[in-house]
Design goal:
It contains 1 helix and 32 strands. It is mainly beta. Among the domains are: 121 residues, Quinohemoprotein amine dehydrogenase alpha subunit, domain 2 (Lipocalin, Beta Barrel); 106 residues, Beta Barrel (Lipocalin); 109 residues, Quinohemoprotein amine dehydrogenase alpha subunit, domain 2 (Lipocalin), CATH 2.40.128. The strands form 4 sheets. An 8-stranded antiparallel β-barrel has the order 1-2-3-4-5-6-7-8. The protein has an 8-stranded antiparallel beta barrel with strand order 9-10-11-12-13-14-15-16. An 8-stranded antiparallel beta barrel has the order 17-18-19-20-21-22-23-24. Strand 29 and strand 30 form a beta hairpin. The longest helix has 17 residues. The relative contact order is 0.13.
C-alpha cells in the first residue's frame, strides 16, 4: 500500500493480480458491495532484513461487480514516499467460490491485497505484493461503513480508544484511554494510560478536539495533547468513520521517537446510568494482547503474544488463566487470583498475582487492555458468550487472519477455514494466502485438529497443525462465531483471529 516510486514492485503486483484473478474468478463479487472503511498495520523492508512501521486507514465504495470507486486513504511510515494524505484511488477486486478474493488498488506504486470475506459483509486482508525481500507486508480489516454518520455532530457521547505501534527504530508504544465528544468538535473528560518502550504514564484529565473534515468520505481528524512521557508535542490523528460508534484512527505526524506510528480504534462506550462500576465486570472476558521485546534467550526483538480468560465477579475479585508465547518460548498460568477496581469513566485497574493491568471499558466485560511491561503488551478483550464451550462451539466456516504482526518473520495470512465440531477431536481445513517479504504464498492448504473443554477454563482448548511445518497452539473461544489462537511453538507468533 505504499512504495510510491517502486516501479518493479508495481509491475510485479499487476502480474500477481492477474494471476490471482485467473485462479479465483469473481463468482462471489456481490458479497463486497456498498460503502466500506479499512485499517491496515504493517512493516516495510528494503531487502536488508530490517523493517520500519507502515500503516494506513481509508475508505472505498464497492459496486458488487468487481469495481472499487470513491477510494481515499491516508498512509504513514518512515520514508517520505510512504506518506499519503487523502490519496484518492479506484481499483478492482475478484471473489472466488470459496469467499477468498484479491483487491488491486490503483495508487502510485500499486497495492495488491488478498482477503477473506465474512458472513456480515466485512473482510480480513493481507498485502501480497512484496517480493525479493522488498516491499510491505501486514494485515488489516475492511468493515461496512454507515455514510449517515459522516458528520461531526454524529460523533457524540462517551468513547474508549486504543492505539499501538512502533517508532522508526521499532520501539513499541501503546495508548488506551477514553473521552467524551460533544458533537461540535470538543473532547472533554479525557483519561489515558500510555506505555512508551516500557515507560508507563497515566493521565487522569485532558481536553482535545476533533472534526469530520469531509462529509463525503467520512474522513476526520483528532488532536490529542501530549500523552507520551510528558513530551510537549500534541498527537494528531486522522480517522475514517465506520459508524457513529466506531472510528479507524491513525497517527499522522512524522514518525520519530516522540511520535511513533500508532494505529487503532475509537469505540463508543455503552455507559450505564450513573457510570461504570465494579458490576460492569461480571463474567468472562477473552483477552488477546500483542507486544514486542527481546525475549529470554533471544538476541533480537520478537513478538510477545498472550491470550487468556479473565473472570470477574462484579464486586472486585478477578481470576486469570492465560497462555503466552514470547519469541517461541511459551508459558501458561492458571487461576491467577487478584482484585480490580473500576471508576465511573470506565477505567479499570487489575492487580493479578503481583502484576498490574489497566483497561478502558467499552461495555460490560469488553475493554482495551494495556500492561506496564517492557514489551508494551496491548490489545482487546471481548465478553465471552454465555454457555459451556466444547468442540461443538467451533463449527462452520470462518475467515481467519494474523492480527497486528509485530515482526517481519510473522506468517501473515488471511484465509477461509471450515471446522467440523467433532468430539473428542475436531478437524479444521482451509486455504490461506500469505504475504511475506520474499513473496506471497497463495492458496496454501491448512489442516489442524483441535480439542476444546468447558472445564477448568471455559472455552480453552488445544490445536495441532498437521500441515506445513506444523506446530501446537492454544485456543480461546469467545462465542460460536469467533475464537482466537496463539501458537505455542512459533518464534514469531501473532494473535490469530477466526470469525464467521
Amino acid at each position: 500500500m505504499k512504495k510510491l516510486n517502486a516501479l518493479l514492485t508495481m509491475c510485479f503486483g499487476l502480474i500477481l493480480a492477474s494471476t490471482i484473478q485467473a485462479q479465483t474468478p469473481g463468482v462471489n463479487d456481490a458479497e463486497l458491495k456498498g460503502y466500506y472503511a479499512f485499517s491496515f498495520n504493517g512493516m516495510t523492508t528494503g531487502g536488508s532484513g530490517a523493517s520500519t512501521p507502515f500503516a494506513t486507514v481509508g475508505r472505498f465504495t464497492a459496486d458488487g461487480a468487481g469495481n472499487l470507486t470513491n477510494g481515499e486513504l491516508d498512509a504513514n511510515g518512515v520514508g517520505a514516499m510512504e506518506k499519503a494524505v487523502a490519496q484518492t484511488f479506484t481499483g478492482t477486486y475478484s471473489i472466488g467460490a470459496d469467499n477468498r478474493g484479491v483487491m488491486s488498488l490503483n495508487i502510485p506504486g500499486g497495492g495488491t491485497l488478498a482477503f477473506a470475506m465474512m458472513a456480515n459483509g466485512n473482510a480480513k486482508l493481507v498485502e501480497i505484493d512484496a517480493g525479493g525481500g522488498h516491499g510491505t507486508v501486514g494485515s488489516g480489516t475492511v468493515e461496512r461503513a454507515d455514510t449517515t454518520a459522516y458528520g461531526t455532530a454524529k460523533i457524540m457521547g462517551n468513547y474508549a480508544f486504543g492505539v499501538a505501534g512502533l517508532d522508526q527504530s521499532n520501539n513499541r508504544t501503546a495508548i488506551a484511554g477514553r473521552f467524551t465528544a460533544d458533537g461540535s468538535g470538543m473532547l472533554s473528560n479525557g483519561a489515558a494510560d500510555a506505555n512508551q518502550s516500557g515507560t508507563f504514564t497515566t493521565l487522569n484529565v485532558f481536553v482535545a478536539s476533533y472534526m469530520v473534515t469531509d462529509t463525503a468520505t467520512g474522513r476526520g481528524v483528532i488532536n490529542l495533547p501530549a500523552l507520551l512521557g510528558g513530551a510537549p508535542q500534541n498527537l494528531d490523528y486522522v480517522f475514517y468513520v465506520v459508524n457513529a460508534g466506531k472510528l479507524f484512527a491513525m497517527e499522522m505526524d512524522a514518525v520519530s521517537p516522540l511520535t511513533p506510528l500508532l494505529n487503532g480504534m475509537v469505540l463508543q462506550q455503552q455507559t450505564p446510568v450513573g457510570g461504570f462500576s465494579s458490576t460492569s465486570l461480571n463474567g468472562n472476558t477473552v483477552m488477546y494482547l500483542t507486544g514486542r521485546t527481546i525475549c529470554p534467550g533471544g538476541a533480537n526483538a520478537a513478538p510477545n503474544v498472550l491470550a487468556g480468560l479473565l473472570s470477574t465477579n462484579g464486586v472486585g475479585v478477578a481470576n486469570l488463566t492465560y497462555d503466552q508465547n514470547c519469541g517461541g518460548g511459551s508459558s501458561s498460568s492458571t487461576g491467577v487470583a487478584g482484585t480490580y477496581a473500576v471508576t465511573s469513566n470506565g477505567r479499570a485497574a487489575f492487580r493479578l498475582g503481583g502484576g498490574y493491568i489497566a483497561a478502558y471499558l467499552v461495555s460490560s466485560n469488553q475493554a482495551f487492555f494495556i500492561v506496564p511491561d517492557g514489551s508494551v503488551l496491548f490489545g482487546f478483550g471481548e465478553a465471552q458468550a454465555a454457555g459451556s464451550f466444547t468442540n461443538t462451539a467451533v463449527t462452520g466456516t470462518y475467515a481467519g487472519l494474523a492480527e497486528t504482526p509485530a515482526a517481519l518473520g510473522v506468517s501473515i495470512f488471511s484465509g477461509e477455514f471450515t471446522a467440523n465440531g467433532a468430539i473428542p477431536t475436531g478437524n479444521i481445513t482451509g486455504t490461506e494466502d500469505i504475504g511475506a517479504p520474499s513473496g506471497p504464498t497463495l492458496g496454501a492448504s491448512v489442516n489442524a485438529t483441535y480439542s476444546i473443554s468447558s472445564s477448568p477454563t471455559n472455552g480453552r482448548g488445544t490445536m495441532v497443525v498437521t500441515s506445513g511445518s506444523g506446530g501446537s497452539a492454544v485456543v480461546y473461544v469467545i462465542s460460536p462465531s469467533k475464537f482466537v489462537v496463539v501458537s505455542l511453538s512459533d518464534p514469531n507468533p501473532a494473535v490469530l483471529s477466526f470469525e464467521q
